[in-house]
Amino acid sequence: MNMRRVKAVTKKEFIQIWRDPRSLALGIAIPAILVILFGYALSLDIDHVPMVVWNQDGSKASVDFLLGFKNSKYFSINAYYDNEHDIERDINYGRAMIGMVIPKDFSHYLNSRTKAPVQVILDGSDSNTATIALSYVNSVVYTYNVSVLKKLLQRSGAPPINTLDFRPRIWFNQDFESKNFIVPGLIAIIMMIIAALLTSLTVAREWERGTMEQLISTPVRPAELIIGKFLPYFAIGLFDLALAVLMGRFVFMVPLRGNIFLLFILSSIFLTGALALGIYISIVARNQLMASQMALLISFLPTFLLSGFTYEIFNMPKVVQAITYLVPARYFIVILRGIYLKGVGIADLWGESLCLLLFTYITTGAAIKKFKKKIV
Asked: Which listed residue, 61, 112, 151, 161, has the most CB atoms within 10 A of its CB?
């Protein structure tokens, strides 16, 4: 390995990147845009569920019942109607997800100590959101039932009823904020997309511009050429990583509880493998359009869909779960969330780290072996 030749190729690649504003924009501006878009737009929190009400009773009891929804951050009562047609219209047009109908004998049922019926019409088009919204409704109803029961016992002078003292304790994300879950995983998405997409164009660009023949005629060895092309994009990848970490901490206030040096070391391993994968794609494709399409198919789609970033792996079919073991981002996301949210160290992440090392070894070796200094 001649470091002078590696340095020369690296310098050439830096000059080429600097002269191509599109590559700079792709490598620096797009990660910042992705962090902002995903951090703000992609939210798994279900707050302010739009709701409309038809209160036929109008009594103090029904108003007290509705206060549980009005005072909750999970619901937003947009309108009060006096007919079912308006409720149906708002749900059909998507202006409301929940329609609630309180019967006119609501308070009479409560005073007679019988169950008071309340109709809840729920838009089930989005099944996941509807399920969460329904659980919120059940929580408010349960709280109201408990309060009514306490009032009845106080009036009757009966002794209090012994009930379960439920004391939940939430670890790692006490406020259930989805940004704390999304932003660490987003780092893996950005690094895989940018690394594979940028380097997938390097060798293919040389073939298209006719400059590869000049490189082949030089004494530069395949490994030196690959490493020389790798180093500039590795520096850009580390800059993107630092940018994502800083934005996550100071823009989205995501806590970083673990060791930041361990985060950068393990991220560098993943980044090396992703860059080598991009170079391998570029060597195989020999065409920038084909290389970019292959990089998108091989890097972005599996990373986004099969890594556990947005969809839990244990909810996937068994066959798909088996396929996820071949997706390196699966292990990297576990590492990121472990360091960010749980503050764990290498003792708890050594298995995932070994998988990343194996991924890097295979992709780097494949890229070096695939490149031949000859014109086919």
From this structure: 61
pLDDT, tens digit, 9 for 90 and up, residues 178-232: 788 888 888 888 888 777 777 877 777 777 777 776 777 777 787 888 888 888 8
Q: Is 53 exposed, middle or buried (0-12, 13-18, 19+ CB in 10 A)?
A: buried
Nearest to 80 by CA among 46, 51, 112: 51
Pairing of strands 119-122, 75-80: unpaired
Phi, psi of 37 (to 5 degrees): -65, -50
CA–CA dist 316, 310 (Å, integer): 12
- φ/ψ region of 236 (left if φ > 0, alpha if ψ in -120 to 50, else beta) reads alpha
Sorted by where each starts, the structural domains of the chain and their CATH numbers stand as 3-43+177-370 (no CATH), 49-156 (3.40.1710.10)
Which of these, 32, 95, 24, 60, lies nearest to 240 by C-alpha position? 32
Q: How far apart are the first and last CA of the chain?
A: 25
The pTM of this model reads: 0.80
Nearest to 203 by CA among 132, 295, 108: 295
Q: Which two tokens stand for residue 48?
A: 């302010």
Tokens describing residue 352: 């995932």
The answer to whether the beta carbons of residues 35 and 183 sit under 8 Å apart is yes
Contacts of 177 (CB under 8 A, 6+ apart): 45
Q: Cα dihedral sign for 280, 285, 289, 294? A: negative
Q: What confidence tier does 18 reach under pLDDT thresholds 50, 70, 90?
A: confident
Do the Cβ atoms of 7 and 220 come closer than 8 Å? no
Backbone φ, ψ for residue 80 (5° rounding): -115, 125
